[in-house]
Give the backbone structure.
Amino acid sequence: MMVKKTLFQGLVLGGCFLGAWLAFSQVDFMKLFNAERAGDRTEYKLGKIFWESIERQEEVVTNDSVNDGVRKILDRIAEENGVEKDSIKLHIVSKDEVNAFAMPGNHMVVYTGLITESKNEAELAGVIGHELAHLEKNHVMKKLAKEVGLALLLQMATGGQGSEMVGESVRMLSSSAYDRKLEREADMSSVDYLLKAGIDPRPFADFLYRMAQGADVPSAVYWVSTHPESAERAKAVLRYASGKKFTKKEVLQPSEWKAIQKISAE
């Protein structure tokens, strides 16, 4: 009786194993892989289309001192945090608005208004780290999928939607906040990025608080007005950074920073 029972159990287990193997073998892994690749291609195309839309309408900064200086800050943060720096497409736009934003396909746009209103490289680095987190955490596509919809995104990527829809999507990314959870995640990630890069995160909190107070800053402070509760966010950044040790390493020479600000203000 025991032998029969053991034999029966063995047959059942063997049958389960065979069934699982057959089911597993029917999974089209190439199809799944291609679906992932298709998603990457869609994001790449959207980023290209969005940037081309901005490029047609805005004045893009071509000055090497400005581009190279801001790029140095981004590269330091990326390198020290295991982010492929060459994958980030940095664009500097000549505009008085205090703003920066991330777009699909690893595009990051920084306005000269943000550069001129940053008191030092660390303040600018905090904002860059925040936007880098939006890219690295896939916040950009989550926001677009939620607010625009996957169907429309696919249509835009394949040329099925006109410039009006593209422009509206760009405006949405540049002038509206992510939800509170994603904003907080980006803030805290920026602090982590800065610490690893040897950049003091406290000036980032100073920037948030100063912008929130609205003193001596332009009315078009989009980066703060679209990121609500900036004063509270400043306090959260300070609490999170408190007591964490790091070795401070300047990214730019003082003369480089002054030159970047001067050129950006002109």
Summary: The chain has 13 helices and three strands. Residues 29-57 form the longest helix (29 residues).
